[in-house]
Amino acid sequence: MAEETAPFLKVINGDASDEEVAALVAAIVAVTAARSGVGGGQAPPPVLNNWNEKSRLMRPAVHPSAGGWRRSALP
Length: 75
Hints:
mainly alpha
């Protein structure tokens, strides 16, 4: 005979339906799988630190507009 184990989740008070308990268990399993790195998902991309990127020093493109030369002299 197989040994019975204690339940992982037990509803003590309330009237949760079977679907609500199943949704809660699915959420808990998803969170624990994401934290442990299990589940076949890919690791998040590394954060790039571009503080010394040369393209950062370039100014954005200038687009001509009607009256733009007039507004360029105003503070």
